[in-house]
Specification:
The chain is 42% helix and 19% strand. By secondary structure, the chain is an alpha/beta fold. The chain folds into two domains: 3-229 and 439-461, Aldehyde Dehydrogenase, Chain A, domain 1 (3-Layer(aba) Sandwich), CATH 3.40.605.10; 233-428, Aldehyde Dehydrogenase, Chain A, domain 2 (3-Layer(aba) Sandwich). Strands 12-13-14-11-10-15-16 form a seven-stranded mixed β-sheet, sandwiched between helices. A six-stranded mixed β-sheet has the order 7-6-5-8-9-17, with helices on both faces. The protein has a three-stranded antiparallel β-sheet with strand order 3-4-18, with no helix packed on it. Strand 1 (3-6) and strand 2 (13-17) form a beta hairpin. The chain is globular, with a radius of gyration of 23 Å. The chain binds NADP nicotinamide-adenine-dinucleotide phosphate (NAP). NADP nicotinamide-adenine-dinucleotide phosphate (NAP) is lined by residues 127-131, 154-157, 186-187, 190, 205-207, 209-210, 213-214, 228-231, 262, 367, 369, 395, 435, 439-440.
Amino acid sequence: MGIATVNPTTGETMQVFEPLTAEAVDRKISIAHQAFQQYRRLPFAQRAEWMQQAAQILEEERERWGRVMTLEMGKPLAAAITEVEKSAWVCRFYAEHADQFLADVEIATDASHSFVCYQPLGVILAVMPWNFPFWQVFRFAAPALMAGNVGILKHASNVPQSALAIEEIFQRAGFPEGVFQTLLVGADRVPEIMVDDRVKAASLTGSELAGASLASAAGKQIKKTVLELGGSDPFIVMASAEINTAVATAVTARMINNGQSCIAAKRFIVQESIADEFTDQLVQRYAALKIGDPLLPETEIGPLATPAIWQELQEQVTACIASGAKLLIGGDPDRLVQANPGLQRGNFYPPTILTDLPIDSPARQEEFFGPVALLFRVADVDAAIELANSTPFGLGASAWTQDLAEQQRFIREIEAGCVFINGMVKSDPRLPFGGVKRSGYGRELAAAGIREFVNLKSVWVK
Ligand code: NAP
């Protein structure tokens, strides 16, 4: 379909965009490169003033921007508005803290004065996904711009209006021309942008395939990348857990963003002694979820973002069942539409739970990007950790237990970029965020995030 807004609730094509020509891309990179020469010299206070202004525009117009996202990718409007507010938060966070995170650090050596300082790199390319169309971009842009870099955005092809909205917000906030630009281009154009000498580094959030492709192009040019890729995160519930809270959180953790979040809990690993009770409660709550038009306030689950995502999920579920997995609820989109004819034209998928996955099922190694939970039973903490670590991914794990020794085991032994004990995994500007294994490398957010795209320069003076 190229670059276009197609409403996932109705299937209606709302707007189609022409991709930029090679000349237009070149012009924009040139403007960015020029802008950097002045922008890098500005004091933090000036950049912070504009970043605070961007936050204010987001907050004042939260409903407008929320609607843009909901119409493009189908997340419930209330969640979209919350995402706009969170994007404002990350702008304010870096406006307030960038100068401390990037202050010179004195180090005693044999010099009369030695220290490290942090300097911006230049034009940074951001390749971003559609699932959090604002948050993913702002969590890249707020630290990058506060550090003195300039950004060019290649957003996912199904969220062009979000991409243009973000460019507009930074312009209206007062940032000089060229400091943040959107490039409406397809994925096939990323390598040519990456090899451009004026582009110094890149951040990509998306699939493993996209990450590997960008990192290969960047590697050939010896350019730095930060990759935030997929996940198949565990949600572990041990016998001592407060089960009602754990089940309620399990539903939110899987269903957030219509099930399309990298850090959504995707594998539920439950201790045998409480597994029946946990399963019964989970199935009941899944059955009660309200699926429908994401613009309606009562809707909890909207459509999947594109027909291709729907198709892939359906194939994964069908393959699981064929390999011997047991379906506890959902799994049949036709039945969903028969019961709710109004959903016929959208990419709606029913909340689904699968269990008893055979040990050799390929699905155990895959990410399910939609409202599908995989349920496993384990005997004890050793088995829980082994199963949790048995995927190629390692983004964010959630473990539920009151037992302090078990908590320590999960904290120390789970292979993931973050571990949340008795809580749902979430991103927070104050905490570094990122993955290990095939979930990627590098960190966003917090001090670590703003230090990814800077030259840490050591200075020695006698
Ligand atoms: P995707 O297909 O990889 O798309 C993400 C972005 O990469 C889009 O802008 C896309 O452009 C571009 N892209 C695709 N193929 C590319 C290639 N070969 N070279 C360069 N760029 C390429 O991923 P998605 O399906 O939209 O997003 C879902 C994935 O993102 C999931 O795996 C999810 O877990 C992951 N994710 C990770 C995080 C995290 O923080 N770790 C956060 C959110 C999502 P086009 O749209 O033009 O194809």
